[in-house]
Amino acid sequence: MPNIGELTLAPAQEFDFRLLIKALGKGEKGSRSLTFAEARLLLEGFASGHATRVQMASAMMLMRVRGETLEEVAGMVSGLRRSVAKGWQSLTVDIDWPVYAGKREQLPWLLLVAKLLASQGVRVMLHGDSKALPHRRHVESCIAALNIRCCSTPQSAQEALNVDHIVYVCAGDLAPVLDECRQLHQELGLRSLIQTAARCINPCNAPLSLRSYFHPGLDNLHQQLCETLLANGDYPAGHVAIFKGLQGETEFNPRVATNVTVVGNPLGYVEVSSFTLPTLLEGFSGAKVGQAELSSEILALLWREPQPFLSTEMNRLMSRTMIEQALSSVNATLAAVLLLLDQHAKMATNVVQALNVERAIQLGQECWQHRFCTSNHPLVRWHNKERLCVV
C-alpha cells in the first residue's frame, strides 16, 4: 500500500483535515509523518475552528505513537506563532523566558534573577502554563510575592513592561489554542508535541530567548528546531539559548556543570556556539529536604535580606544548605544570562566580547550584592567600562 503523497494544501477554511489524519493513520505501511507545512496548517486549522477536537486529538495521538518528527514540531511552532495575537508581537522585550516545567520541590529562584535584571531596565517576558503539570510548583504561583504582574492583554502587559520592565503571561492568553491543546492531552493522558512547541513561540520576538529541557535528546531537537525556524524566517533575528534546566525549569542547576548551546542569526546566517557553566556547589547534598513546604514569601524575604545567612528570620525558615543552594541557583542563572546578553551584543554589533565564564560568575555575585543600587549599579559600571549593550 503506497504512502499518501504530499497533499495540495489550501487555506484552513477550505481544507479537508481528514486528509491529514489519513496520512498519519493509513496503516503500518501506508502512513507517514506530516510535512512542516501540513503540521502548521493543522495547528492553524484547530486554532481557527476548522479542524475539530477529534481530528486534533487523533493527530496528536498518532504523532505521539510514531514519535514526532522535527518537521512536525517545527510546523506546530510556526502555526502557534501565527496564532499569537498581533498585539503581543508589538511589545518590545529583551528576554523571552518560557517557564512551563515547574519544579518538584524548590521555589523558582529564577524569579529573583528576572526581577534583578528588570530593576536595571532589561525587559523580561515570562510565560507559562501552570495547569499543564498541576502537581508541580509553577512560577505563576510565586510572582505575587515579588510584585511581578500577571497580565492577560497586550495593553496591560505593555504598561507592566513600561513601569516594571517585567511581566508574566499565561500561555492561553497569548494563544487560546494552547489551552485547548493542553485540555486534549490531559484527556488523552499522553504527552504531546504541543508541550515542546509552546516553549518555543517567543511571542514578542525578543532578541534573546531561553529554552530549557529535561529529558535526554531534547537538546538536539531544540537545536534543530531553532536552526529550521531561523533558516525559514519563522524566527526573528537573535539568539536562542538551550540548556538542561533545574528539574526541567528554565533555571540553571548550580550542582552540575551545564552546557549551553546558542543558536542565532543576528547577521543573517545561522550560527551555533556553546559554553559551559561550571559546577558552583561541588559535593553539595541535602538541599531538597523540606523545601516543598516553603512559602513563596521566602522569595520576597531573600530579595530584601542583605545578609541572609545572618538573618534570624531566614534561618528560622530555611536551613543554611537551603539558603546556599538558593543563592547559588540565582548566581548560576544570572551568570549564564549575562554571558548570553554579552554574546548577543557581540554578534549583533560586532564588538569585542568582554565577558568570560569566570568574570560572569563574579559579576553575577556583584549584581546580587548591590541589587538595591539605584545608580552606579555593577551592570552599569560594567557596561560603561566593557561596552556591553544591555542597559
How would you characterize the overall build of this protein?
- The chain is an alpha/beta fold and 391 residues long.
- The chain has a domain at 91-174 and 202-282 and 323-386: Nucleoside phosphorylase/phosphoribosyltransferase catalytic domain (Pyrimidine Nucleoside Phosphorylase, Chain A, domain 2, 3-Layer(aba) Sandwich), CATH 3.40.1030.
- 46% of the residues lie in helices and 10% in strands.
- The chain has helices at 18-25, 27-30, 36-47, 53-66, 70-83, 86-89, 110-119, 154-164, 171-174, 177-188, 193-198, 218-232, 297-304, 312-317, 320-349, 357-369, 378-386, and strands spanning 95-98, 124-128, 166-170, 208-213, 239-244, 258-264, 271-277.
- A seven-stranded mixed sheet has the order 3-2-1-4-5-6-7, with helices on both faces.
- α7 (110-119) links the parallel β1 (95-98) and β2 (124-128).
- α1 (18-25) runs parallel beside α4 and α5 packs across α12 (218-232).
- The protein starts with 17 loop residues before the first helix and ends in a 5-residue tail after the last helix.
- Mean pLDDT is 91; it is low at 387-391.
Q: What is the compact description of this entry?
A:
It is built from 17 helices and 7 strands.
